[in-house]
Specification:
globular; disordered N terminus; 8 strands; 281 residues; 12 helices; Rossmann fold; 8-stranded mixed β-sheet
Length: 281
């Protein structure tokens, strides 16, 4: 029993992090449009007014995933028909994801599918997935096949064959200087790899556009539904997937980004970057 107080304290800390009421009156969320610090409840009320919400993340941050879950929980509590859009799942594995959500697949078996799609620990995302299954929330794999984006990153968009392009319906790749500047600002040193920086930008554009297409398709096919997209902050910025969504359809949306070193800070974030910057994570 000696370790019980420590475990209780840890549990209390986790509950505090996830609970909406924790730290009532907290003002660690910046509403970028007017530079006002707002409470979680104020932000949630605004998010509930639109059918599409993007929540960025640093993939390895447990606190960012806890914040995502908190928003999903709150919108669900408010009676919104939430679907969760996933950067970390490819559309080709939607059937396996659906079977797990329905309880037709054991989690141990599902983990094989998870690690085929994403190379980060299941534990980071587990609570989001379990909440979706327990609450009967749809989850939608948004990601394009990695072989396509990897090829574009190394050899450019023009290297795709007509057959490969057929796997990316409605996806084009027009890169302008403003988008290149955005990629440099959003991803910094991460925006390098095999091939030229131009190829990297094209791969990012293909990635964003393919995910945007799936977001739009889902919302158009499911009247009255809303989608919360969880994806890396480099995709969740307004310049990323949201920009491509707006090119396809006039769907109102909001974006929430965590403040992260090397990304927008409270001092330099702009309304064109995000609607909310969560500074307390």
């Amino acid at each position: 029993m000696r370790g019980l107080p420590g475990r209780v304290a840890l549990l209390a800390a986790l509950v505090c992090l996830l609970a909406t009421a924790c730290g009532s009156g907290e003002r660690d969320i910046l509403r970028v449009q007017d530079g006002t610090d707002v409470s979680f409840e104020e932000m949630a009320s605004d998010l509930a007014s639109v059918p599409l919400v993007f929540i960025g993340e640093l993939h390895t941050s447990g606190r960012h995933h806890a914040a995502q879950l908190r928003i999903i929980r709150e919108l669900t509590k408010r009676g919104i028909k939430v679907a969760v859009g996933l950067e970390m799942f490819h559309d080709g594995h939607q059937e396996e994801l659906d079977r797990w959500l329905k309880g037709e697949t054991e989690t141990d078996d599902f983990l094989n599918t998870w690690y085929h799609n994403w190379n980060l620990p299941w534990a980071l995302y587990r609570e989001i997935f379990l909440f979706a299954r327990e609450s009967d929330l749809p989850m939608v794999g948004l990601n394009a096949s990695p072989d396509l984006t990897s090829q574009v990153a190394s050899r450019g968009f023009d290297s795709l064959t007509p057959e490969q392009l057929g796997r990316l319906p409605g996806v084009s790749c027009t890169i302008d200087p403003a988008y290149e500047d955005f990629i440099r600002r959003a991803l910094g040193d991460h925006a390098h790899g095999e091939g030229s920086f131009r190829n990297f930008c094209e791969a990012q554009m293909v990635w964003d556009t393919a995910m945007a297409r799936k977001v739009v398709d889902y919302l158009e096919e499911n009247e009255g539904a809303a989608m919360v997209v969880i994806a890396g902050s480099g995709h969740s910025w307004k310049h990323g997937i949201p920009r491509q969504v707006q090119r396809l359809a006039a769907i109102p949306f909001r974006t929430v980004l965590p403040e992260t070193v090397g990304r927008p800070s409270k001092e330099d974030v702009l309304p064109g970057d995000t609607d909310y910057l969560w500074t307390g994570l």
